[in-house]
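Example 3.2
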Amino acid sequence: MRGAGRGVVAVVLAAVAVTGCKAELDAGGDGTESGKPGAGAQGKAGSALAAVDELTVKGRAPKTGYSRERFGTAWADTDSNKCDTRDDILKRDLKDVRFSDGTCRVAGGTLSPDPYGGKDITFTRGASKVDIDHLVALSDAWQKGAFQWDPSKRIALANDPLNLLAVDASPNRSKGDGDTATWLPPNKGYRCSYVAGQVAVKKKYGLWVTGAERDAMKKVLTGCPDQKLPSGGNPTEAPARFHAR
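Structure, written as tokens:
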């Protein structure tokens, strides 16, 4: 009997061990179970997680009619500081910045670190490995509401510092016009900030999200429920002197 008892105990312990391993395997790196985006999770007031629930959920509209020109001339000086938007973001995001023209035209510097890949990237004008990324890609914005806007609002989105980030060109070009459901930065430590930035831009401009996108946002942000919703940037209308198709 004692031998049989030991056998029963061994079987029970083995079952517990297997169950425990399975639970660990099912747990996602963001604290949710694998395949379950934490759709019911709610964040505190002012958090990016809470703001996800304020976004409108709709299907993606056709890409018909989209072109970059719909968002105006690239890097327009919409804040009227006499520097184009690209130089403004380089000045903000690079370290050890060098100028070729006063304090506006950026000639060099270091992206330390690149938020998408986590490595230091040297910026040299004319041979740059640094892109300025639209957190919410313009094509994605077009398909989720921007096709309905006045040109001044599209120009504002394209040049709003809230929607812009200096990044390594290589991972950025793999993003294309992906949203949170289809692309996240390889650097896992930056994903909460990245998704919070997308939520902030979509909330500010009234862009909608797809159901899959909303679930992906909540899956990431459930792992960092206190992540603040970014704010600031430029007005949502560009000055009247700027035009787009």
